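Data card: per-record layout.
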Amino acid sequence: MWFRALARLLFLLAALFLVGLATLRFGGILVVRGIDVIFVNGHGPSQPGHLSRQAVKNLTRIGYKDNIFKLDLKQARERLMAHPWVKWVHIERSWFRGIVRVYVREREPVGRVEGTGGKGFVVDAEGVVLGADLRLKPVVRCGFPLPEGIKELPWAGKLLAAYHGFHLCSSLYPIVDLTGLPTVTLRSDTGDLPPVVFDLVPGDGFLGGLRRAASRLEALISEVGAEALGPFGVVDCRLPDGCVLIPGERPSAKGG
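The structure for this 256-residue chain is written out next.
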């Protein structure tokens, strides 16, 4: 007898639990009362850089008074991840407090790629295109047009990320001119400094050649100072052992 009574009690408790759960889920008792947007970087919470908190809330399409049980967090995350400036998203909800927390990590631009005609695209280190025609440096100048609607330029992201690490070079010579390949020209944007030239070596890879030339240039600038380069025509980094300052009239910086 006691076994049947216990079974009936357990059945009743389970039924009450399911009724309560259904009431909470479909009855609109537990609703969204707040949406917190938290921007993070590799070190923790940070200030928003390119997206506003309101823009993030709008992209989730989660509204106040929405039934918190019915929220589709997967779709909300997918909508956010479709935005070019969003690198990473995590969404969680506090069921009984009615709070939705959205953690967002933005992509960090490393520079701009510029094709013929001056059309430019900002990219991050992975080459994801973040926007068009934003005046950001350093710049990679190509000798070919960049198509409309392009979403990724991985080679440019790697190149700019590598060059960004050479702080002296990228600040004094923010233009990496590829229009004369296999010779690459680093240009200042003010015209106060002579251009720097180096060649791509077959089998060396572009990043290897860029790092080698930038390293030599950084060493030269650290040794003599940027002002000492001013009177020269060209800084030639094509020799095996370093960079050479060549006197003379500077070549035209057309397009630079």
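Known properties of this structure: Residues 7 and 98 are 35 Å apart (CA to CA). The two ends are 94 Å apart (CA to CA).

See the next section for split statistics.
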